[in-house]
Design goal:
Blueprint (H helix, E strand, L loop, with lengths): L2 E5 L3 E2 L5 E8 L7 E7 L6 E6 L5 E3 L7 E6 L4 E6 L8 E9 L2 E4 L3 E5 L2
Parallel strand pairs: 2-11
Antiparallel strand pairs: 1-3, 3-8, 4-5, 4-9, 5-6, 7-8, 9-10, 9-11
Amino acid sequence: HLQLVESGGGLVQPGGSLTLSCAASGFTLDYYAIGWFRQAPGKEREGVACISSGGTTNYANFVKGRFTIYRDNAQNTAYLQMNNLEPKDTAVYYCNAKLGSYDYWGQGSQDTVSE
């Protein structure tokens, strides 16, 4: 069964940190580009960060300097390290793996930043 399984989300106070994991099952992530997206209530899904198969990263301006995307091909897993979280970061976060016409999404992880 080919899927991405997310973990690591939850509730955190402003200024806190969370690390999201995105583990591939049934296929190998090595050659896939990985992206993290988020969708806040009442808003459209937006891109947060991405990493190519070769390790090149790109970030949305609103997370630069706070979030880090990385991958561990040996673990067949990608990660999103989120630091200095703000209430406006509250959203459902999704990981995506794409290679040509192959396109997989994680189930989504609710992350809430609140006092």
